[in-house]
Amino acid sequence: MNARTPAEVVTAASTPADSDFQQHALHREERVWLETNCYVDLWIELLHHYRCDPHAGLSFTVTQAFEGDQFTFPKFSLDDIARLYGLQAQELAIYDTLEAHVREQTRRGQMVVVEMDAYYLPDTRATAYRQTHTKTTIAIDAIDTDAKRITYFHNAGYFALSGEDYDGVFRLMPGLASDVHALFPYVEFVKRARAPLEGHALVQRSVDLLALRLADRPTVNPVAQWRAEFPAHLRALLERDPAYYHLYTFNVMRQLGSNFELLSKYLGWLNRHGVEVPVEIQTSAQAIASEAMVMQFRLARARMRSRTDACEDCFDSMQASYDKVIEPLAACFL
Is 278 exposed, middle or buried (0-12, 13-18, 19+ CB in 10 A)? Predict the structure, then answer.
């Protein structure tokens, strides 16, 4: 059996690109939802790496809607990232080996954001590593093809992998390399186009983008829409296996709760920078985050006891809180 290289959280002594790596405050301060999703958490740390404040780009949170079987997957707007931070994220065509393209782009000082199989990412040891094949997004900042080693951002951390894991992520193993039906992954590269906005200019551009996002806000309370569909969702949760429960709660409760927690953090940032937002709006956004977590725990107990819990009071709370967030924000900024 080949030895497996363990996950290595890159420390100040071994980091080749950022010897002072520390998580951004959004990942260190107290939160109900410690993580959002791999894309949002990755970009928080990428922006921090580029010495930019991720708070300014969080206006996307006001557009979250209910999509029938899930809530809109929160994502930073790449257009907003360009306007605020001067960073361009563009699709990278993969016509050679992924390894070759990563080598070229990182040689040019650019970050490569790529969809990977978490099966080969040792930092996912507690969930997917050598257990299950699942898609996730990482950002590679350095590669050593001779040593077969990369350093990369993933979720809220900065890690390294090498050896057999390197061969796995780049599909260099004989069984993977010979698979003629394997599709190229979706890849982006990030480059510096201009200096980021700072100070008042950054805050003002963020407010301008918030107004644009509020113009695209949902026309119907999405929590109310979810509530109407929930009886059918609940039957499925009670009938299907635990894996389905975890997938459902990730795509529904976690995306809703973490999105509004980020919105609460964003509104707090605006207030700290002289943009007055009524405190009730911020606290109501945080209330949605907290109640979504309460509901997740209640459904876990209901599953274990094979009992129905319609969570009516959770819906009452979240619906009322939503009504105190989005339309009042629109009244402030439109």
Answer: middle
Which residues make Cβ contacts (< 8 Å) with residue 62, sequence separation at least 6? Answer: 210, 213, 214, 217, 263, 326, 329
Per-residue DSSP letter, 180: T
The token pair that represents 279 in the structure block: 């405190």
- CA–CA gap between residue 161 and residue 168 (Å, rounded): 10
Residues in the chain: 334
Task: Please name which of 312, 311, 256, 329 lies closest in space to residue 286, comparing C-alpha atoms.
Answer: 256
Q: How far is CA 168 from the centre of its chain?
A: 24
Q: For residue 50, how many other CB atoms are within 10 A of its CB?
A: 16
Q: What is the pLDDT along the chain (334 residues), one digit of tens a residue?
A: 333 333 344 433 333 334 567 899 999 888 999 889 989 999 999 999 999 999 999 999 999 999 999 999 999 999 999 999 999 999 999 999 999 999 999 999 999 999 998 999 999 988 889 988 888 999 999 999 999 999 999 999 999 999 999 999 998 888 766 665 666 789 999 999 999 999 999 999 999 999 999 999 999 999 999 999 999 999 999 999 999 999 999 999 999 999 999 999 999 999 999 999 999 999 999 999 999 999 999 999 988 888 899 999 999 999 999 999 999 999 999 9
Instruction: Give dist(CA 140, CA 135) in Å, integer.
Output: 16
Give one DSSP letter per residue of 205-259, joined into a string: HHHHHHHHHHHT--SS-HHHHHHHHHHHHHHHHHHS-HHHHHHHHIIIIIHHHHH
